[in-house]
Amino acid sequence: MNEIKLLKRCLDRLRKSIKSPGLWGLIFTIILIFNFWAKPALTQQPVTITALINAGEVPYWKKLIVEDFEKENPGIHLEIIEAPNATDLTENLYTSAFILGDSPYDLIYMDVIWTGKFAAAGWLLDLSDRMSENGLKAFMDKDVEAGRYKGKLYRIPLRSDAGMLYYRTDLLEKIGAKPPETFEELINISQQLQEKKATPWGYVWQGAQYEGLPAMFVEILEGFGGFWVNPETNEVGLDKSEAIQAVEFLRRVIDKGISPPGVTTYREEEARRLFVNGKSAFLRNWPYVWASAQEEDSEVKGKIGIKPMVHLPSAKGGACLGGWGMGIAKSSKHPEEAWKAIQYFTSKAVQKRFTLETGNMSSRRELFADPEIIAKYPHYPRLQTMVESAVLRPPIAQYAQASDILQRYLNAALSNRSLSAEKMMKSAANQTRRLLGTT
Fold this sequence. Notes:
The chain is of the alpha/beta class and 439 residues long. It folds into three domains: 2-42, no CATH class; 47-161 and 323-391, Periplasmic binding protein-like II (D-Maltodextrin-Binding Protein, domain 2, 3-Layer(aba) Sandwich), CATH 3.40.190.10; 162-320 and 394-436, D-Maltodextrin-Binding Protein, domain 2 (3-Layer(aba) Sandwich). It is built from 19 helices and 13 strands. The strands form four sheets. Strands 3, 6, 11, 12 and 13 form a five-stranded mixed beta sheet that branches. The longest helix has 22 residues, at 21-42. Mean pLDDT is 91; it is low at 1-7 and 36-42.
C-alpha cells in the first residue's frame, strides 16, 4: 500500500512538470513495466540446487567452488549437503532417496561404480546431447568411459583416481634394486629388505571386506591376465586359472610374512599409516597418499616413488580406475541450472584451483602438463599414464551385488588358509553368474 501511495505522488509531480501528453504516456508506460514486471524479476529469489558431497570434501567445496559459483551465477544458490565419508553409505542414501520418490538432490555426485546402477534404474538424466564429443576430449578417456551406460552419457568426470604402487626409493637404493615390475620381483625385494632389518613389512594393501578389496583385486587380476566380468557378454572370469593365481599370490605374501597377517582387515588408512610411518617398503593405495607422505611428521618424506602395479612378465600392470563425477537427477526440477553448475565445476580454472589446493587428480587432460601444478606436485605427470591404462570395475547395473559376492569369498579365502582358493572363487563365480542370469 505504501508503494502505491509513493507511486501516486511521483506521478502527480511528473504530470505537473511534463507538458507533452506523448512523453507523459511513454514515462507512464515505463513506470508500469518496471513496477509490475521488471521489479519482481529483479527481486526474484535465486533457484536453489542441491548436491550431496562427501564430508571430507565439503570444506574444499565451500571454500573453492560454492562462493565463486554463486557470484558468477547470482540466480542460482548451490546448497551443499554433507554425506558420509564412506562411499557405500552415500550410495545407500542416494538409493533410498530415489526409491522413496523424487530425489532431494539435483546434482548427483557419483563414484565411478555407480553409473550403471543409477542409469539402469532410470534415476539419471541423459547428458549425451549436452556435451559434444569434441568437448569430452578435454577429459581423460577412461574417466569419460566410466560415465557411459549402454552408449549414453550420464556422468561428467570431475576428479580422477587410480590405484598405484608406492615404494621406498631410499630402501631400494640400499640394496641396489630397481622398482619391481613383476610379482616375483616384489616378493624378492621385500624379502631382501626384511632380512636386512630395513623394514618390518614388505608390502601392505587393502584386504578388508569392503569395496576397496575388489578395487585392489582387479589390479592383481589384470597383472595375471585375468578378468572379473566382461560387461559386453556378462562372461565371468573369477574361477579361471588367472583369477586363482591372483588369489594365491595374495595368500603367498601373507604366508611368507611379506604382508602382515592383519592385512585382511586393512582399509586405505590402515595401510597408509604403516607406510607413512616407515613400516613398509611397498604400498598399494590411491594418489591422496602422496600429500600425507610429504608432511613434516612423515617418516618417508622425500623418499617415495610411484609406479603401476606389478604383473606377470607376459601380462601388463593395471591401475583400478576410481574418481568422482557429476550427473543430474532425472527428477530435478532445475536441470538447466544444474547443468550450468556442472559446466562451472568442470571448467579448467576451477579444476586447476581445486587440484592445487587439495592435491586431488583432475579429470582434465591438459592439467597433467600444467607447470604450476607440476611445480607443487612433481609426480603429477606420471599419474596421467596410470589413468590412461586404468582398469574399470565392471560397469554393470548389478555391480553392487557382484562386488558384495567377490568381497565375501575373496576375504574368506585370504583370511582362512584352510579354505581352498579354487573352491572359494568357483563359488564366487557361480553366484555372480546366477546374479547376471548366465547360468
